[in-house]
Amino acid sequence: MKMARAASPIPEPSALERTRAAIERMVMEGALPPGCHVNESALALQLQASRSLIREICRAMVESGLLTAQPNRGFFVREMSLREAAELYDIRASLARLAGAQLAARITPGQLAELSDLIARMDAACTDWDAATFYTLNNSFHDKILKFSANLRLQSVHASLLKELQIFRRNSIVTGDIRKSNEQHKAILQALAEHNSLEAANRMEDHVQQSKVRFLENITHELR
After folding, report:
1. Which stretch of DSSP H or E encloses residue 67?
2. CATH number, residue 61
3. Are 92 and 104 spatial neighbours (Cβ–Cβ below 8 Å)?
4. Which one, 155, 162, 181, 200, has the greatest CB density within 10 A?
């Protein structure tokens, strides 16, 4: 009789990973707003890390597009232009198209059920006009599509892109018709269920492009 193999323990994140996650969270949540100077000494004290570790993380965050480096001045949280944000949406739409096409060819009944459940919960949020809950469920819906596509590089690039977009989106709540958005989710699910790669790709790309339009309209309104 074979003994069941014990599951491998999940490794604890390293000090570098924990500290970088904390700094990224500060940027995403606005504790370090766009244009803000990154005080390495203060962060080292706050996060109980060495300045050399903070500096190493900041250099990596420059490469990922979250910070900028200025000679003799240090690191600053990136300030993103409207044009840059629009370009990131276009890239996101292309990635969504690829995810939809790849997932349609391989999606399982269990995965369809998970996506269907999220759509049902978003319907309930629409009925209650609970935009915060809808937003969380919407993110889960898109995250699962990326995860189910089983394309690890696609997931990595998409996650990095969303971090950049969050710098801009954080200060602007993207409003819109959440019912219409969920109808688009249903159309995406139908294409996936039919294993129609072309239709799923088109639906996914169009969905993100419409999000871009709402985003730009909202930002334009705020800037008036």
Report:
1. strand 67-70
2. 1.10.10.10
3. no
4. 200
pLDDT at 29 over 90: no
Nearest-angstrom CA–CA distance, 143 and 135? 12
The amino acid occupying position 5 is R
Q: Residue 3 falls within a domain, yes or no?
A: no
151-167: average pLDDT? 89
Check whether residue 44 and residue 94 sit in a common domain: no
| Domain assignment present for 5 | no
Contact predicate 77/36, CB 8 Å: yes
3-state secondary structure of 96: helix
Residue count of the chain = 224
Q: 184-223 as b/e, with b when 16 or more CB fall inside 10 Å?
A: bbebbbebbeeebbebbbbbbbbbbbebbeebeebbeeee
Q: How far is CA 198 from CA 19, 142, 187, 211, in A?
A: 42, 18, 13, 20
- Are 194 and 135 contacting, i.e. CB atoms less than 8 angstroms apart? no
Same domain, 204 and 97: yes
